[in-house]
Specification:
With 74 residues, the chain is α+β, with helices and mostly antiparallel strands. It folds into two domains: 1-30, no CATH class; 40-69. It has one helix at residues 42-69, and strands spanning 2-8, 14-19, 25-30. Strands 1-2-3 form a three-stranded antiparallel β-sheet, with no helix packed on it.
Amino acid sequence: MRTFAQGLNDRGQITGYGNLVSGGIRGFVLTPLNGSDAIPEPGTLALASIALLAGMGGWINRCRRQRSTMEPLG
């Protein structure tokens, strides 16, 4: 099936049509998500994951350095 976007209507929805496997043609209307309903792009998720892992790595290294410089009690 191939789809083709034709344009935007007055509500900001994407309009278009698609060729069905059976040979027919069907129109469609897509409504974009707004604000908090939006799903982040995979690149955004990857960048956030890398930042989180880097932050955790720094925290772990700092804890290890502090632990190795502590003097034993007693």
